[in-house]
Write a structure and sequence with these properties.
2 domains; 7-stranded mixed β-sheet; two-stranded antiparallel ribbon; binds nicotinamide-adenine-dinucleotide; 366 residues; single chain; 13 helices; Rossmann fold
């Protein structure tokens, strides 16, 4: 029987995997993972905010399906995506005599997913990996597509791999324990998906903004499934980011990343940087004659309804342009800009004049 909670199937060079989202599906995880061949014992990696109640609930669900699950709890936060933590997890696995056929299950946000995935990709040259995302960013973005990584002191995600999970299982109910600001920044990524590829998703956001901020079960689940399907479709077409397809997900990220970096990751949450970056990219597209002012305004109004910032008062042009030149998406010295031609229509441009970028940052900073 088809799974009513199936959002998408990701196809990749080594096979395919289901992306599932539903309200309260944690309690069904045991049988779902068994169906994917997960054996006892399994190894849950989670963080100090997520363990209670979500990690514990996943552990119970597995135990009900006769899968014993050990838990490793990392400190919540980006600094945990480190070699030190990866090494601590390797040692824990060795101590438990973990074997190659036994699965690692990431239960948490993107930090847990990236670290656990990195360990799964490398421990014993690769063990089965399952994603159980609990933050919005992890559900609609980080858990899908197989990018796993840890950070170096010199920069984020500098060491990693493409390592696809066996399945992604998002229980939308877990979002109810996120703070309002974290929720809004997560929705920014999903709104971005609409603007780049799916105009009808943007309509849904406009119709249900308040209900989505309250994580009302039916509409929140539908929007998350749609947003996951967009990411799944993109990564299925461009698994390793060799075409100009996967990069479309970077809409708003060129300025967004630079804003995060130049404020030392202390002022803006990632999704907030993306929100401001989307406004910067929209202005650039408008100045290049690609995008109407009405769409720019529509995007601004929607982001503001989710309480997201659309300006970055006080930053200087030099501060923002410097990290931009170090962006991983730079090719042959030119930034690749994802710009809109309309709602749901994104393209990549390599010819955005530096002066226009500087002017745009100036405008955002006023
Ligand atoms: N692999 C990819 O393709 C990809 C894509 C985008 C982002 N990322 C990575 O993901 C990370 C950002 O993800 P994130 O925003 O989820 O960060 P995160 O994992 O740090 O989670 C944000 C915060 O929310 C908490 N949290 C998570 N779920 C919760 C819940 N249900 N209730 C209460 N608190 C909860 C976490 O403990 C943390 O404090 C970055 O490291 C980024 O590089 C990876």
């Amino acid at each position: 029987m088809p799974d009513a909670n199936l959002a998408a199937t990701v196809h990749h060079s080594g096979g395919n995997y289901p992306v599932v989202a539903g309200w309260g599906i944690t309690d069904t995880l045991g049988s779902r993972l068994k169906a994917l061949g997960v054996k006892s014992p399994a190894y849950i990696i989670t963080d100090s905010n997520v363990m209670n109640p979500h990690g514990r609930r996943v552990q119970r669900a597995l135990e009900q399906a006769d899968i014993a699950a050990h838990c490793f709890i990392i400190p919540a936060g980006e600094p945990s995506k480190s070699f030190e933590l990866a090494q601590a997890v390797y040692q824990w696995l060795v101590g438990l005599k973990a074997e190659r056929g036994q699965a690692i299950i990431a239960v948490g946000g993107g930090v847990v997913g990236d670290l656990a995935g990195f360990v799964a990709a490398t421990f014993l040259r690769g063990v089965p990996f399952i994603q159980v995302p609990t933050s919005m960013a992890a559900m609609v973005d980080a858990s899908i597509g197989g990018k796993v990584a840890i950070n170096l002191p010199q920069g984020k995600n500098l060491v990693g791999a493409f390592y696809q999970p066996k399945g992604v299982f998002a229980d939308v109910q877990t979002l109810s324990t996120l703070g309002r600001r974290e929720l809004a920044e997560g929705w920014a990524e999903a709104i971005k998906h609409g603007f780049i590829l799916d105009a009808s998703l943007v309509d849904l956001f406009e119709e249900h903004a308040e209900a989505l901020m309250k994580v009302e079960p039916e509409i929140a689940t539908e929007v998350i499934r749609r947003s996951m399907a967009i990411k799944a479709d993109i990564v299925s077409q461009d698994e390793r980011e060799t075409l100009d397809i996967r990069i479309l997900l970077n809409y708003g990220h060129t300025i967004g990343h630079a804003l995060e970096a130049c404020t030392e990751y202390g002022r803006f949450l990632h999704g907030e940087g993306v929100s401001i970056g989307m406004m910067g990219a929209a202005r650039i597209a408008q100045e290049l004659g690609m995008l109407s002012p009405e769409v720019v305004e529509r995007q601004r109004r929607l982001l503001e309804r989710f309480g997201l910032p659309v300006r970055a008062e006080g930053v200087t042009v030099e501060q923002v342009l410097r990290p931009m030149s170090l962006d991983k998406k730079v090719q042959g010295g030119a930034n690749r800009w994802v710009l809109l031609e309309g709602v749901g229509k994104a393209v990549v441009r390599r010819d955005v004049p530096r002066e226009l970028v500087a002017e745009t940052v100036q405008e955002l900073a006023r």
